[in-house]
């Protein structure tokens, strides 16, 4: 009998992870079931058993109808009250954040969970035998909510929440993605959400690929498309030694070896289907429909093999304690990210492979498999040198991780990381190293990969140099080497705060006493869930470091904005609708696509530009014109930016630029976009600091002693 | 299966009937009544004061975005045909519309379509003068592509409107919403309208909205019986006359101007070209495709074993080369237009009689579907696009019960697959396959859950398994169709090389290598198409038989 008492009463507080809509129904059905049972049999003890039946019955009668009563769920197995109080979630769910816009509150997460009195109940045993402050990635949203002004106190009655949920449930804000996922769940097609999302994303990518690409029909040089195709051609017909030296004037290979190997594989398959597509020199500028479709297909397949699995892994691993629906929505928003679709499938590049490897690295870090993560990041670097934008964050994260493990375990990890990294780099460049090539052979790819002989910036790109060039005329003031140094200094200053945060956090969580446990832990590594305290800082650090590279470094392309967008979108995925994160994140995304408009316009991708951007915003339910009771400033800023963007588009459509300033529109574009990127960069530093503070506090003493 | 009933035959039948009446009055008086939705949720937000719930708006927007993304995709010659018609109707007086031969794509659609093109040509001239230039043949700049593609999108809103009204009046709105969405997202429309380029969405919107299409006899009988007869069986003359007037008036509006100008013979000449053959270039998968295939098989057999068939030498030449022209059978007796006409009429009259006995809405829908189906199965020179005539009304029945649903699945899969050869370009292969697969999953799964019945007898279990086997066969078929050209290409290339070498080595004349290669390729080129056609024809014939049986056996109560 004792066990049944808490069945009803504390249910509101004890199941914070369930949607309140869900809870409402099960509560209602439960009550009716209980009442009926109590009146007929008079024994409360059976009510608990029958509760499940009652709820399923209710549910069945409503199945298929469109009201929100159909929120179906299996009966929740009830644990003993004492066990429940030990629940991770319960202890840390002080804030049942009522986010008005999302249909369910954000999952309470183990944001600031401290040690537990009864370790026996906890299912997770951390790697080093000591409970670190358990922190998950999605705790950031929780954190963001708890700092927001509209924070609601948890109410026992739940009436407040219910009202908010109604708005979220059928309100316009919920977004198409969430509505669709909800429909799928209601119609028992839960398992179909993932394949359908991936299928739809692939379909959209392919459809974008039906349109124009970089340099279509513009001999003699064509564009990025021809460059990639040309590499497939030369890697298949030339010995490896000549890859980086053959006819450099015509799209010489200037990406690291993994791209070359990838091109070789694609070219090999293509030559099997039709050898004329990749004939040496003869196939230059080939644009037959079949060859075009094949080259397009290589992007799609690489994307499907690297980037999409990485996204699924990410959603499963780093949003693990969010609801299934939020996970699906996060995946959908990441899959349909318009900027990446437009550049990879439209303009034609293989960015998704590089981003996918970085994302895999992040996933492995979250699992505590730092060595695998390091290998993945080397692969990312080996695919495109642009992944260097992430290097400061990843490097300082790993450094912080080594520090936090304490001197003994930390130095072991450091050694392992160093060896794996060096080995994978050697493996990557193996064909250019001594047994296979003379020692000078390594110089060919290196020189090609890092071109310091080009200008400060090429086209109009929305970074600091190009924007301030309107006023300062950097290139006439300073000689080239000085500019290189200046940009390097500014870039380092730009990512220094975030790198410092990671190292600092590692130092703060340092554990001196635990070196002895390491061998034991590593032997059990497989079934151990590792908690990585500094992980939540990493995406912010990735964002701020890549953004500082984009803004301040030398020779930046407008496409490089994709690099800051990856961590931004990871953070954005699954964030509640009224959060600053969501609104600012979508704004930055839209501005980023806008900043690439001159490029897309050149490629003839105007229609996909509008369509995919609109679809993504609509799918997320983003509406900058919605009246917000709070965050007025944010709303005004977004309104100003959107109207500026809109005006520029209209002007460009109606008028041609004055003869004196042929670049007027691209420059205006840069002037609109750059402030947003600068603000995002500053904001990422600020939030990184806040998260660091949330994770480890700001006092300068490391926690040296083990809590008991 | 034999006890299929029409559940909505009692009171919902009356309500739908009155809806029809309303529609007729609305059309005759030119003032459509403002219809309040049957089930309006309090939470439904008004969106621009349109009566659309968020989920419906989602569907509309998603479909529009998907279709906009297809703007740069493959366009058939129909695109240029329609552009030419824009030019004809805009730059020529009405008296010359049906006589113009500047382009090879002369105007050969009925007058209403010509008026429709005339309306479209007014904004077209504003967007870009060169669209409506009669001599600007094969014009394909961005302006014309975007303009013509968006006209398809915009006119398709008629279909959306009709489908929305289906939801509003439905007994089970959530099922009807799935069906309506399935029609709005139908791969058939996507393939034929938005890639291949036609205005079927608009047509079917009108078909679904109105009863004007007097071409289909089912409309006649239904209107005659349920609308003009009182329950006692007396003819209500006023109603009959109003109905007759409407039909005549519409017909006069359509043909009138040409009648006045004395151009009817020319019009008829353009609209009904009887010079074409029994089969289209790519055999539409109907009964005649099966018969033609049987003829080919018999010919092979006769050649090999020399049995006592009288081989028609003309038929041997007229093989499956995919030429537009008369199909002549080698073994089987030839089919004349009159034969197809009689068979079609005979089948249709059977369904008409059934409809006369059970004049309910569901029965009407079923008869409508079957009439379309008969025309498709046995018609003369049927085009594969005509399968939409079957699939659209059949979809409306899909949520009724399991028998209809199963027929719907079979017909949809076979019918949609039979449209795939319309898009032969490599780029669209993935588009059509991926889209159709996702569509099928999202439509079939929820409907299946709602209507599923376990097969009750052993024959039904066997049929059920066979049908599943048939559906699974499409995967193999697609693999074959994809791999075949690549394999034959490699094969002929190697053969070519060999024969070239032989030719170079041997001194004897006559063995011309190129001839050899082309003949080899030519005989095999149409094998995937033929196989597709025959395989789809099997499924569609079975679906036709299944639906007819279900309909004939169904009891009114």
From TrEMBL, chain A:
Which residue ranges run through the membrane? 192-213, 299-319, 325-343, 413-433, 482-507, 528-554, 604-621, 633-655, 667-685
Q: In which pathway does it act?
A: Protein modification; protein glycosylation
Residue segments, region Disordered = 1-54, 92-171
Q: Does the keyword Coiled coil apply?
A: no
Q: Which GO terms describe its molecular function?
A: dolichyl pyrophosphate Man9GlcNAc2 alpha-1,3-glucosyltransferase activity
**For bias kind Polar residues, which ranges apply?**
27-46, 92-126, 135-147
Q: Which UniProt keywords apply?
A: Endoplasmic reticulum, Glycosyltransferase, Membrane, Transferase, Transmembrane, Transmembrane helix
Using the record, list the residue span of the signal peptide; answer none if the entry has no such feature.
none
Composition bias, kind Basic and acidic residues: at what positions? 161-170
For this chain, the family text in UniProt reads: Belongs to the ALG6/ALG8 glucosyltransferase family.
What is the protein name for this chain?
A: Alpha-1,3-glucosyltransferase
Q: Supply the source organism for this entry.
A: Sanghuangporus baumii
TrEMBL record, chain B:
Gene Ontology BP, a term: protein N-linked glycosylation
Entry GO CC: endoplasmic reticulum membrane
MF terms from GO for this chain are: dolichyl pyrophosphate Glc1Man9GlcNAc2 alpha-1,3-glucosyltransferase activity
Primary enzyme class = transferase
Where would you find this protein in the cell?
Endoplasmic reticulum membrane
Q: What is its EC number?
A: 2.4.1.-
Q: Name one Pfam family in it.
A: Alg6_Alg8
Transmembrane parts of this sequence: 146-166, 178-197, 203-228, 240-260, 338-356, 362-382, 403-424, 469-487, 526-545
Superkingdom of the organism of origin: Eukaryota
Alphabetical keyword list: Endoplasmic reticulum, Glycosyltransferase, Membrane, Transferase, Transmembrane, Transmembrane helix
| Catalytic reactions of this protein | an alpha-D-Glc-(1->3)-alpha-D-Man-(1->2)-alpha-D-Man-(1->2)-alpha-D-Man-(1->3)-[alpha-D-Man-(1->2)-alpha-D-Man-(1->3)-[alpha-D-Man-(1->2)-alpha-D-Man-(1->6)]-alpha-D-Man-(1->6)]-beta-D-Man-(1->4)-beta-D-GlcNAc-(1->4)-alpha-D-GlcNAc-diphospho-di-trans,poly-cis-dolichol + a di-trans,poly-cis-dolichyl beta-D-glucosyl phosphate = an alpha-D-Glc-(1->3)-alpha-D-Glc-(1->3)-alpha-D-Man-(1->2)-alpha-D-Man-(1->2)-alpha-D-Man-(1->3)-[alpha-D-Man-(1->2)-alpha-D-Man-(1->3)-[alpha-D-Man-(1->2)-alpha-D-Man-(1->6)]-alpha-D-Man-(1->6)]-beta-D-Man-(1->4)-beta-D-GlcNAc-(1->4)-alpha-D-GlcNAc-diphospho-di-trans,poly-cis-dolichol + a di-trans,poly-cis-dolichyl phosphate + H(+)
Q: In which pathway does it act?
A: Protein modification; protein glycosylation
Q: Which InterPro entries match?
A: Glyco_trans_ALG6/ALG8
UniProt KW Transit peptide keyword: no
Membrane topology of the entry: Multi-pass membrane protein
To which protein family does this belong? Answer: Belongs to the ALG6/ALG8 glucosyltransferase family.
Report the protein name in the record: Alpha-1,3-glucosyltransferase
Organism, by scientific name, is Sanghuangporus baumii
Organism classification = Eukaryota, Fungi, Dikarya, Basidiomycota, Agaricomycotina
